[in-house]
């Protein structure tokens, strides 16, 4: 016979263990209302004290990347824990890899879409590791062009930095060319190393551009420059800003004599093709 679980008992179990309401209710149902067994159940599942741990800062962890079996989608996820010690364990690495695969398979594209199954697994992991564990962020790309799109990924510093990039190449057969593949890898390395804000200056968000203009104008004015030349000074500093922060205008990390744009043009000429760096995402562990 099923025992009725009162809200008061659930409340007491929550206060005792720190677990969530639905987790406590489920524990009591599983143990036929036995309070002590319910506590044991929650501890075994890693849910006891999960709420308490959730308030602790989690800045360590790993970044993982997964590609769908048909190669049409790619996903990057950052999962945090509290200490580098835990993040370096094989157990945590396995948890992150499994979580990334599950998120990909479920079609999840943002933190807001995390379901109760994954949420429970995160709480169980927190209990197992004795640390707060958080799925911090997710980015997912679907090919813009099923035939011409190519995904390149890169994990740097043992999972501390991750990059995914979509490159469109025409004709599509070039995707198998070794020189193109080297270019794709080099672009992902460039993004990981130099952290560009955008692909080109036309892609820089308007709010960032406005902020930079205001900063440069104020700097020029505060240094005593005449008003009539401030616009020229701002233009010069903006060009420098673009060169440092726009991927295509950045100096290539392996050859500072050329920009990424020039590198791209060389590959296009050598392979008689057209290449477009469509979009990218870069995660650095612990960044907001």
Order of helices and strands: HHHHEEHHHEEEHHHEEHE
Structural class, judged by helices and strands? alpha+beta
Main beta sheet: strand number and arrangement? 3 strands, antiparallel
Strand order across the largest sheet: 1-2-3
CATH superfamily heading of one domain: Elongation factor Ts, dimerisation domain
Please bin the fraction of helical residues: 40-55%
Q: Summarize model confidence as the mean pLDDT.
A: 90
Give a quick summary of the entry.
The protein has 288 residues and is α+β, with helices and mostly antiparallel strands. The chain has helices at 7-17, 21-30, 35-45, 50-53, 84-87, 90-105, 116-129, 178-194, 206-222, 227-245, 260-271, and strands spanning 60-67, 73-81, 134-142, 149-156, 161-170, 251-252, 255-259, 274-284. Among the domains are: 7-48, Orthogonal Bundle (Helicase, Ruva Protein, domain 3); 57-142, Elongation factor Ts, dimerisation domain (Tetrahydropterin Synthase, Chain A), CATH 3.30.479.20.
Description of the structure:
This protein is an alpha+beta fold and 288 residues long. Among the domains are: 7-48, Orthogonal Bundle (Helicase, Ruva Protein, domain 3), CATH 1.10.8; 57-142, Elongation factor Ts, dimerisation domain (Tetrahydropterin Synthase, Chain A). Helix content is 47%, strand content 22%. It contains 11 helices and 8 strands. Strand 4 (149-156) and strand 5 form a beta hairpin. Helix 2 crosses helix 3 (35-45). The chain is elongated. It starts with 6 loop residues before the first helix and ends with a strand. The model has no long low-confidence stretch (mean pLDDT 90).
């Amino acid at each position: 016979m099923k025992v009725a679980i009162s809200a008061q008992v659930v409340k007491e179990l929550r206060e005792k263990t720190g677990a969530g309401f639905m987790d406590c209710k489920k524990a009591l149902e599983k143990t036929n209302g036995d309070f002590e067994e319910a506590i044991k159940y929650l501890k075994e599942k890693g849910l006891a004290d999960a709420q308490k741990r959730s308030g602790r800062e989690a800045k360590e962890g790993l970044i993982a990347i997964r590609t769908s079996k048909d190669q049409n989608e790619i996903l990057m996820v950052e999962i945090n824990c509290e200490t580098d010690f835990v993040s370096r364990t094989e157990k945590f690495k396995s948890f992150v890899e499994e979580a990334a695969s599950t998120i990909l398979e479920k079609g999840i594209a943002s933190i807001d879409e995390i379901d109760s199954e994954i949420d429970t697994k995160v709480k169980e992991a927190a209990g197992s590791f004795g640390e707060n564990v958080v799925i911090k962020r997710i980015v997912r790309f679907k090919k813009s062009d099923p035939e011409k799109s190519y995904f390149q990924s890169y994990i740097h510093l043992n999972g501390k930095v991750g990059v995914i990039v979509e490159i469109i190449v025409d004709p599509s057969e070039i995707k198998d060319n070794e020189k193109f593949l080297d270019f794709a890898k080099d672009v992902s390395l460039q993004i990981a190393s130099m952290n560009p804000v955008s692909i080109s200056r036309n892609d820089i968000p308007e709010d960032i551009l406005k902020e930079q203009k205001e900063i440069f104008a104020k700097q020029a004015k505060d240094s005593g420059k005449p008003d009539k030349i401030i616009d020229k000074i701002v233009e010069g500093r903006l060009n420098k800003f673009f060169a440092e922060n726009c991927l295509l205008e950045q100096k290539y990390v392996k050859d500072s004599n050329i920009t990424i744009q020039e590198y791209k043009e060389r590959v296009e000429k050598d392979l008689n093709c057209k290449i477009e760096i469509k979009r990218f995402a870069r995660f650095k562990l612990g960044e907001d």
